[in-house]
Amino acid sequence: MSARAAAARADALGLPFLCSSAVIDALTEHPAEAVARLAPAQSHGWRTYADFLVGGGHGRIAVAAEASVYWAAGTRVLREHLVPRGATLVELDMRTLTPEALCGELLTHGATALLLLMGHPDPAVPVVRAVRRDPRLGGILIGAPAGQPEFTEWATLLGAEGAAVPFLRYLPEHLGPLGTRVGTALRARLGEAPSFVAFEGYDTVTVLAEVLRSPRGDDPWADVAVQGTRGEIRFSRVPGIGVRQWAWAPVQVADRDPADPGRFRVLHAAGAPRVTVRPECG
After folding, report:
1. First and final CA of the chain: distance in angstroms?
2. How far is it, in rounded angstroms, from Cα 235 to Cα 58?
3. Residue 233, C-beta contacts closer than 8 angstroms, at least 6 positions apart
């Protein structure tokens, strides 16, 4: 992963490095004073996704995954938080399965939810099409914790078939004054509603500007306190995380509304299930 390589190099040089979006817990191999991160650690965000699955009554979950450190770490987080609560989790290797063969495996295992831990658009888009068009799998939930359904290309390629696929994003239920102003400006520049990644980018620049204005010697992230688009940003040490961490950016489980795939619904947030339609997004 490029973020891990950049963090390791920055740590070796003692160069302050702020990671905006990589979530894997082991961003560095050992504690790194010069490295900080805005995005929630995978163990935090994906635990919220596991809560959402359990709350929705899903006890037989299939994970269709490609081979990578990131997908393996996500599978481990899901297993740790689902199995002790009575759920079963089966891993399906997308290196050996076609989308059609995957449908057969889902039937064999009686899965009620399929999680896509794979690249977009391929093989994620062909898999979604195959599952949606298989009449035997009409009741299965398709999920994509890594957030692929938020992006415009997903909706363009899949249309209505890409709706109702819950994913993680890092936004509050309601943006404050700064977030609202930034969102309006980004929409005007982009020609569409910004994704949570755009807010991460703005917050990254805001934090870096504060650090550059007030150098902090050997600990560049000490006493940082800035107002970001999604809340006040401070960095701390979190058990099990080797970098300075914003604990935490807000975490939502959302999907595209089947009645209008250009809108998003907030399904779950930090232990508080809900359904809120956000017509301004999409």
Report:
1. 28
2. 35
3. 38, 203, 206, 207, 224, 225, 226, 227, 246
Each residue's pLDDT tens digit, 200-237: 999 999 999 999 888 777 788 989 999 999 999 999 99
Report pLDDT digits (tens) over 138-151.
Answer: 999 999 999 999 98
Quote the pTM value: 0.92
DSSP result, the chain: -HHHHHHHHHHHHT--EEESS---S-SSSS--TTEEE-SPPHHHHHHHHHHHHHHTT--EEEEEE-S-HHHHHHHHHHHHHHGGGT-EEEEEETTT--HHHHHHHHHHHT-SEEEEES-TTTTHHHHHHHHHT-GGGTTPEEE-TT-GGGSHHHHHHHGGGGSS--EEE---SS--HHHHHHHHHHHHHHSSPPPHHHHHHHHHHHHHHHHHHS--TT-TTTT--EEETTEEE--B--TT--SEE-TT---EEEEEETTEEEEEEEEEETTEEEEEEETT--
User: Residue 1's pLDDT is what?
Assistant: 63
Sequence letter at residue 29: E
* CB-based contacts of 6, cutoff 8 Å, min separation 6: 17, 19
Q: Residue 281: is its pLDDT beyond 80?
A: no
pLDDT, one tens digit per residue, over 158-180 is: 999 999 999 999 999 899 999 99
